[in-house]
């Protein structure tokens, strides 16, 4: 028999590991399982089943030891942050608080698959699935004053199919993939269903010919849920820990105001419902970490300040900076610059008013003098004696 490429010549890989750290781990997981027989079937012989199950477990553990491509994920996360700024979308990073798995229903020799991003080679959840998760939260758990209000929001955010009451329409929000921002930690998990016969064939139970009120002996032993059934371990691949990011944008200008609310509700859904598969058993829970929340709030504050400053004149911008520096120093338990006279950032910022004085209106000059009076008093500067302060004050006359 001709061996496949990865089992022959210079490509032989006895340990089942991908050929390099930059290999597409998803492609390897989906296409390079090594537990097939010589005729490309999975072993079904009862004597070999235990060995096959061990091969499955060992192969999943080998995959779990690999690393997803950190550099590509970081670069892609940066690109998505820039995209979010460009389209005025809300971008947020979530950290797993329980194992995360998605795509377990995909066909795979180890019985449970995994959804892998086609180009990044990392576990992910599609934007359509993110949309479905948020919709489930809105329809079942989000608070509303009335059911009419709930229905209106569902139609507005997610759209509707054509029916007797509505024409088909797209929702006003755009949903993007939930993707890792850096390498994730993979692991091998196990589930142990005890009554496979009941779950698979419970609806085919036959009754005894002698007594129609009783189940036949064979079916009673194999298909009835009971405590004599042995657990059957099923191993599957999960994300043990990692950070995932997504963004929500607006399809229309009118929907821009609701993007922030949609992201807040998605955060609640990820925390309480979970993403992906096996959420009923606690999988898929994610929360925004304190560090990420702080960074996001700082960035939002910077953007808000930049927008505010852009609407001011140069003189007003300078005065705002001076006032904020002094307020920040006053808020400290031990102020750094009080009574420090010259040579500190508050006075250095205030000196810029001298260059801006010629372009100031009378109202701005009056405001500047009031600000400088407070600054001189705080720093302990006598504007009639200190040369730099005297020149600064004179420029405003």
Automatic annotation (TrEMBL):
All copies of domain CRISPR type III-associated protein, residue ranges:
94-287
Q: Which InterPro entries match?
A: CRISPR-assoc_prot_TM1791 (IPR010172), RAMP_III_fam (IPR005537)
Tell me which UniProt keywords the record has, alphabetically. Antiviral defense
Keyword NADP found = no
* A Pfam family assignment: RAMPs
Q: Which domain of life is it from?
A: Bacteria
Q: Does the keyword Transferase belong to this entry?
A: no
The protein's name in its UniProt record: CRISPR type III-associated protein domain-containing protein
- What is the organism of origin for this protein? Pokkaliibacter plantistimulans
């Amino acid at each position: 028999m001709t061996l496949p490429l990865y089992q022959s010549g210079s490509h032989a890989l006895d340990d089942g590991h991908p050929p390099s750290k930059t290999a597409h781990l998803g492609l390897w997981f989906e296409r390079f399982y090594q537990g097939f027989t010589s005729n490309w079937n999975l072993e079904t012989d009862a004597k070999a089943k235990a060995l096959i199950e061990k091969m499955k477990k060992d192969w999943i553990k080998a995959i779990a030891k690999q690393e997803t491509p950190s550099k590509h994920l970081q670069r892609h996360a940066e690109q998505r942050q820039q995209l979010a700024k460009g389209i005025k979308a809300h971008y947020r990073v979530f950290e797993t608080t329980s194992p995360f798995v998605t795509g377990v229903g995909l066909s795979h020799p180890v019985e449970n698959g995994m959804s892998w991003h086609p180009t990044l080679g990392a576990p992910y959840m599609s934007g359509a699935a993110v949309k479905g998760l948020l919709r489930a939260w809105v329809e079942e758990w989000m608070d509303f004053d009335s059911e009419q209000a709930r229905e209106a929001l569902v139609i507005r955010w997610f759209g509707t199919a054509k029916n007797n009451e509505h024409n088909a329409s797209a929702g006003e929000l755009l949903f993007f993939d939930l993707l890792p921002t850096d390498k994730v930690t993979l692991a091998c998990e196990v589930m142990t269903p005890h009554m496979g016969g009941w779950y698979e064939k419970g609806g085919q139970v036959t009754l005894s010919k002698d007594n129609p009120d009783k189940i036949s002996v064979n079916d009673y032993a194999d298909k009835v849920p009971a405590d004599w059934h042995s657990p059957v371990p099923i191993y599957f691949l999960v994300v043990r820990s990692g950070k995932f990011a997504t963004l929500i944008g607006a399809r229309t200008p009118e929907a821009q105001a609701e993007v922030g609310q949609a992201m807040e509700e998605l955060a609640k859904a990820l925390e309480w419902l979970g993403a992906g598969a096996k959420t009923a058993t606690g999988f898929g829970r994610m929360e925004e970490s304190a560090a990420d929340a702080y960074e996001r709030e700082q960035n939002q504050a910077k953007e808000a300040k930049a927008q505010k400053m852009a609407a001011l004149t140069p003189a007003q911008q300078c005065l705002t900076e001076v006032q904020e520096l002094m307020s920040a120093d006053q808020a400290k338990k031990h102020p750094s610059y009080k009574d420090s006279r010259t040579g500190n950032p508050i006075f250095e910022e205030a000196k810029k008013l001298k260059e801006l004085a010629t372009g100031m209106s009378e109202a701005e000059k009056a405001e500047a003098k009031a600000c400088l009076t407070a600054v001189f008093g705080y720093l302990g500067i006598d504007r009639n004696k200190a040369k730099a302060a005297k020149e600064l004050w004179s420029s405003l006359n």
